[in-house]
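sry for the spam today, last one i promise. struct tokens for design, 744 residues
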């Protein structure tokens, strides 16, 4: 047999090696579950099939035909990016295909001249592979080796070398054939993939056949494992709740691939028994040649806690723990939709004489009283309905699927519950409720109407001596007339200059320096005396009078601040409360700019305080606030945490500061959480680069707590009540207020 026949002979022997090698490569490629790899595998398979066909044809053809087929087979081997090395140990004849030139970068002649050249170019760190390879070949066993070579051009490439030995009947090695592939791209891809997986902060794991096959370092840490051995080989139920595992298993029966990717949030248990919240996505893959499931997940415990805190702040009253107005309205709407053919009752409850107690004994006593009231209301209602706090000393109760007679009985039980005095700080207080009742569907078809009519009925209860309940009826026109009278008085108040502004200093807590003032409106009616802002501000907003009133307040505050500067006082900003109704006015920004220009006040000395209710129309509010920010006006959120705030919106608004509501400040010394909510708000404010101001400070302990927790600014009765111009000027001229002295 001539040399070409010998080469062809060894090429035929190599087909078996090629088949084995391609199958091994295919299993590795399919691990990545890639379309490109699948296409490559298909192409390789077609080549193998072609080679096999040629072998079969070769054994059944004449010599001339075989000569043509040999030429064809040579062309196929020459075009493949594969090298075949055959060594007959009996004759010491070596046959090498030209493909080795592409792999190693050396000419074919050099390999024939020096048969050890392939060993000489192996990377020094991989020479240990040769010993294992020689041992396996000497035993007559096929071996696959992976090592690096240094090409003639200095480039380092990865080689996969499949050695297939042949032994005689005595077990002696007589020849062997090697099939070599350049697997650099695949090897580097695997290394990058492995690096990404191991460096990922998320858990990445694979399980199959009821056990965990792989888990990365982040996964071990997440579940509290000291090493991979604690988890590898264990059932996946260690990582995934059994209920979720059943869902995953059921999904594998679905033919539609788009539905196989599944996401879950569930509570998992670490190895030490601690519970964590986990977000996880699963997807079927192939791993080491078999069907498996890949897991990608993360610990979302902190996110869940933050969501719960925000949800609680949005839907529950911090002081009493009752559902707030948002939760109540949402629940009422759900009830009206679900049980629209049933009778329901709304009870609007306002505490009689509470404002007197709050003003004379302080907000701390008032807040404790409200907490006791909330507990009594829950006890009186029991499981009959929902009790919520509307705000201030107002509560709303929903009684579902109920008739008028039972509503009367429950209202009587509430009045009876308030007959016993309330004890706060060893002092007894007598507080009675005035209750207004509206019935669905007779008194309204929607939550807004039902609450408004119950509120109207509550005013009737107050006018009829308080400490009673009244049902809404169309005959309550007298209350409407009263509102009309207040509106008329309010219009005259603007004309007759009955409104005045008081000013409450804002203090730098570390130094007690006065760094600003807040302007607060007061109304002294010539016939009815002092009218609380809580009584006329809501009516002003309802009737639209808040717009001209707000302009007057803004102008007066700016004029006063400019006057102080002209008198030589140190310039300080003045804060003015702005209602949602004002912001919704199309001319609001222009009116602010006009007032500043006419008065001559630098915009940086004006701070507008808005409430979280601006979130109800976030798009327009954002436009208005950005325009104000461009002017140079400071923006702050008043009563933070008591309204509609959403961090997803708040962080995008041009806010300079947030004001912690008094109810949170009181919790510092009067609540079991000992100011934890205040800490949360301060930290959140600082993280969002907001200035944080605490309102309603009344005790020295609150001051010390706020200072310890990096709250820089505060205001409250411990420093000064809101004061008329002449009195506040004395404090401003002095520049500071002595700590701990209650200014009356």
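last one done:
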């Amino acid at each position: 047999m001539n040399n070409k026949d010998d080469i062809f002979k060894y090429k035929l022997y190599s087909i078996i090696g090629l088949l084995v090698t391609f199958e091994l490569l295919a299993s590795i490629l399919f691990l990545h579950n890639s379309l490109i790899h699948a296409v490559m595998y298909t192409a390789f398979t077609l080549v193998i099939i072609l080679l096999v066909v040629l072998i079969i044809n070769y054994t059944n053809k004449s010599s001339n035909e075989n000569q043509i087929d040999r030429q064809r087979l040579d062309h196929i081997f020459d075009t493949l990016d594969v090298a075949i090395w055959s060594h007959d140990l009996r004759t010491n004849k070596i046959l090498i295909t030209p493909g080795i030139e592409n792999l190693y970068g050396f000419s074919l002649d050099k390999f024939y001249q020096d048969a050890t050249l392939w060993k000489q170019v192996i990377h020094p760190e991989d020479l240990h592979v040769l010993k294992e390879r020689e041992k396996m070949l000497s035993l007559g066993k096929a071996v696959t080796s992976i090592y690096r070579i240094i090409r003639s051009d200095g480039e380092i490439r990865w080689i996969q070398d499949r050695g297939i030995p042949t032994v005689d009947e005595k077990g002696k090695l007589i020849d062997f054939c090697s099939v070599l592939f350049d697997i650099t791209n695949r090897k580097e891809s695997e290394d990058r993939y492995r690096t990404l997986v191991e460096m990922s902060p998320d858990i990445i794991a694979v399980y199959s056949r009821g056990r965990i096959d792989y888990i990365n370092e982040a996964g071990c840490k997440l579940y509290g494992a000291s090493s991979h051995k604690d988890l590898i080989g264990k059932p996946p139920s260690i990582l995934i709740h059994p209920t979720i595992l059943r869902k995953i298993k059921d999904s594998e029966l679905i033919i539609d691939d788009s539905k196989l990717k599944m996401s879950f949030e569930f509570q998992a248990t670490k190895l030490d028994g601690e519970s964590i919240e986990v977000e996880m996505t699963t997807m079927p893959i192939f791993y080491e040649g078999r069907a498996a499931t890949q897991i990608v997940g993360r610990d979302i415990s902190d996110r869940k806690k933050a969501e719960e805190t925000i949800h609680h702040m949005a839907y529950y009253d911090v002081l009493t723990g009752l559902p707030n107005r948002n939760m109540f309205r949402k629940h009422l709407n759900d009830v009206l939709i679900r049980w629209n053919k049933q009778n329901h009752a709304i009870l609007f409850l306002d505490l009689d004489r509470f404002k007197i107690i709050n003003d004379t004994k302080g907000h701390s006593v008032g807040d404790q009283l409200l907490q006791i009231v909330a507990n009594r209301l829950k006890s009186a209602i029991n499981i009959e309905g929902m009790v919520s706090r509307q705000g201030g000393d107002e509560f709303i109760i929903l009684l579902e699927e109920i008739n008028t007679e039972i509503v009367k009985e429950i209202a009587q039980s509430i009045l009876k519950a308030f007959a016993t005095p309330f004890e706060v700080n060893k002092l007894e207080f007598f507080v009675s409720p005035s209750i207004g009742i509206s019935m669905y569907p007779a008194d309204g078809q929607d939550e807004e109407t039902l609450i408004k009519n119950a509120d109207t009925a509550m005013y009737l209860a107050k006018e009829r001596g308080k400490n009673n309940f009244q049902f809404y009826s169309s005959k309550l026109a007298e209350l409407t007339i009263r509102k009309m009278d207040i509106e008329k008085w309010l219009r005259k108040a603007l004309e007759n200059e009955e409104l005045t502004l008081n000013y409450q200093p804002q203090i730098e807590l570390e130094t007690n320096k006065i760094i600003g003032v807040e302007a607060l409106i007061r109304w002294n009616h010539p016939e009815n005396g002092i009218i609380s802002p809580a009584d006329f501000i809501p009516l002003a907003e309802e009737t639209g009078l808040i717009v001209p009133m707000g302009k007057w307040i803004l102008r007066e505050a700016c004029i006063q601040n400019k006057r102080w500067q002209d008198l030589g006082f140190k310039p300080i900003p003045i804060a003015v409360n702005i209602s949602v109704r004002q912001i919704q006015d199309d001319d609001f920004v222009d009116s602010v700019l006009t007032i500043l220009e006419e008065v001559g006040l630098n915009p940086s000395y004006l701070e507008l305080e808005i409430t979280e209710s601006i979130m109800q129309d976030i798009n327009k509010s954002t436009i208005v606030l950005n325009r104000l920010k461009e002017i140079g006006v400071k923006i702050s959120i008043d009563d933070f945490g008591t309204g509609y705030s959403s961090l997803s919106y708040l962080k995008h608004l041009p806010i300079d500061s947030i004001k912690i509501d008094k109810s949170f400040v009181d919790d510092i010394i009067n609540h079991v959480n000992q100011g934890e909510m205040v800490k949360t708000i301060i930290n959140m404010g600082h993280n969002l680069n907001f200035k944080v101001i605490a309102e309603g400070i009344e005790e020295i302990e609150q001051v010390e707590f706020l200072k310890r927790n990096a709250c820089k600014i505060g205001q409250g009765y411990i420093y000064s009540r809101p004061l008329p111009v002449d009195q506040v000027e004395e404090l401003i001229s002095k520049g500071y207020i002595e700590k701990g002295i209650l200014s009356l």
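The chain is about 45% helix and 25% strand. ok im logging off now
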